[in-house]
Amino acid sequence: MALKTIIVERGVTNSLARKFNCSMQSVRMALRGVTSTDRSQLIREEALKSGGFYKPNLKKANWV
Description:
Layout: E1 6-7, H1 12-19, H2 24-32, H3 38-49, E2 53-54
Antiparallel strand pairs: 1-2
């Protein structure tokens, strides 16, 4: 099962990259759920603590 994308405010990805000593691309991939390493899980947890939220599912409902 794919992980849900986490949305954060501007600048949070940069601070997460500095905190976890990794690249901005690594943080973006962790927030999108592309990677599933221990570090990416820690990044996701910290992003949620710093005000991030899961991207809402915006698929349209099937109306009859």
